[in-house]
UniProtKB/TrEMBL annotation:
Residues 3-151 form the N-acetyltransferase domain. Keywords: Acyltransferase, Transferase. InterPro entries: Acetyltransf_17, Acetyltransferase_Eis, Acyl_CoA_acyltransferase, Eis_dom, GNAT_dom, NAcTrfase_Eis, SCP2_sterol-bd_dom_sf. It comes from Streptomyces flavovirens. This is GNAT family N-acetyltransferase. The keyword Acyltransferase applies. Belongs to the acetyltransferase Eis family. Acetyl-CoA binds at V82, S83, V84, R90, Q91, G92, L93, L94, T95, S118, E119. Homohexamer; trimer of dimers. The active site is at Y123 (proton donor), F410 (proton acceptor). It holds the Pfam family Acetyltransf_9.
Length: 410
């Protein structure tokens, strides 16, 4: 069966989006969400497969900037809205879209592509490596207590409407973004994603609620959440469902968590996406009653190996020759010398020298943000050491002291 791969026109948008909706279960987006994604998406960065008048495949790429180790914001393609109609599976449509998309990303001068995977098994063959983990929590607040740092009582909490607090919350987010690799730097319009709250997505809970933390008149943190009421024979068993929580200092952070623990008629807190090193796990009295669940988060694909490796900083001096395997983007394949100084600044250039390490671009993407150890990858047989000590040298240089994390979906 022949299909046409092309960039959708503005007139194609509803048909294109309808294909995506059908592939993800057939539930239409709410009008609010449809309008928001239409605003954020760019047709010129999207692709569609067409079988006559019917759209049977979709893929998009937001224009992002993502924080990398060292705090720099690197241009990145935020891969999104990938689907193939059930009637057209196993015909090469996905591969052709991924091929065209990575060619486009390269032409746009974006050295990395990133995505959140609905099905993790799909993207490894296209060179994407799982670079971050996210933590899900369900905390039994009837039994768990918090250890509070000094200064918590000096934090003022104030409830505001999510829309009214948006500028203050975004200012906190912007200050925190350079400190954690994997964090997208918000582009214009993306702040609306944080307050998008269609009734159909509330699962019986309240509308979104926002509480600000303040110290000396300055907003130092925020939390957005909803309450899902529940009762049983013993009384109230409501759940606090946290969407986002961020703070600039330990006292504000702890004050926000203390507030959540104390919400009336609730006995649990649920969080779907927190960093793997979330500090709340150091404050709780009983981590076993927090039901910690780790899962894959952000996937990273190096589109331009040299530019990507030069964009980040390194934890220790490094001088390594990497032999990179990349069948899908052959311009990356071959040997690269990575040389970095004591300040973490590195150059990465083509070389004919003998390789110290050999690995695929997928493993290089997994290690890129500093959250996946090259030692672990080598132990799994995914990194081959040609010079004794090269894995240890590379693992130290690539590591970072803050776990990478992508705090929102796209």
């Amino acid at each position: 069966m022949n299909t046409e791969l092309r960039i959708p026109s503005v007139a194609d948008w509803d048909t294109w989006l309808g294909c995506l909706e059908l592939a993800f279960g057939g539930v239409p987006l709410t009008p609010e969400s449809r309008e928001m994604y239409a605003t954020l998406s760019r047709p010129d960065r999207s692709l569609g497969h067409w079988d006559g008048e019917e759209c049977v495949g979709t893929a998009g790429a937001y224009a992002f900037q993502v924080t990398v180790p060292g705090g720099a914001a690197v241009p990145a393609a935020g891969v999104t809205m990938v689907s193939v109609a059930a009637t057209h599976r196993r015909q090469g449509l996905l591969t052709s879209m991924m091929r065209r998309q990575l060619d486009d990303v390269r032409s746009w001068g974006e050295p990395i592509a990133v995505l959140k995977a609905s099905e993790p098994a799909i993207y490894g063959r296209f060179g994407y490596g799982a670079a971050t983990q996210e933590t899900g929590l369900r905390i039994d607040t009837s039994l768990v207590r918090l250890a509070l740092p000094p200064g918590t009582d000096g934090v003022r909490l104030r409830r505001v409407s999510p829309a009214g607090a948006l500028d203050a919350c975004e200012a906190v987010y912007a200050r925190l973004a350079p400190g954690r690799p994997g964090t997208p730097v918000r582009q214009p319009g993306w702040e609306q994603l944080a307050v998008n709250d269609p009734a159909a997505h509330r699962e019986g809970g309240s509308p979104l609620i926002c509480v600000l933390a303040e110290r000396d008149g300055e907003v130092t943190g925020y939390v957005t959440y909803r309450v899902r009421p529940a009762w049983d024979e013993a009384g109230p068993r409501g759940t606090v469902a946290v969407r986002d929580l961020a703070a600039l200092d330990a006292a504000s952070y702890a004050a926000l968590w203390r507030f959540l623990f104390g919400i009336d008629l609730t006995s649990s807190i649920e969080c779907g996406n927190r960093p793997a090193d979330d500090a709340v796990l150091r404050l709780v009295s009983d981590v076993r009653r927090c039901e910690v669940r780790l899962r894959d988060g952000l996937y990273v694909r190096l589109v331009d190996v040299g530019a990507a490796l030069e964009a980040r900083r390194y934890r220790a001096p490094v001088d390594l020759v990497l032999e990179v395997e990349d069948d899908f983007c052959p311009w990356n394949a071959g040997r690269w010398r990575l040389t970095g100084d004591a300040k973490g600044v590195a150059s990465c250039r083509r070389t004919e020298d003998r390789a110290d390490l050999a690995l695929s671009v997928r493993e290089l993407g997994a290690a890129y943000l500093g959250g996946v150890s090259l030692t672990s990858l080598a132990s799994a047989g995914l990194v081959r050491e040609n010079r004794p000590g090269a894995v240890a040298e590379a693992a130290l240089a690539f590591s970072w002291d803050v776990a990478p994390w992508c705090p929102h979906e796209f």
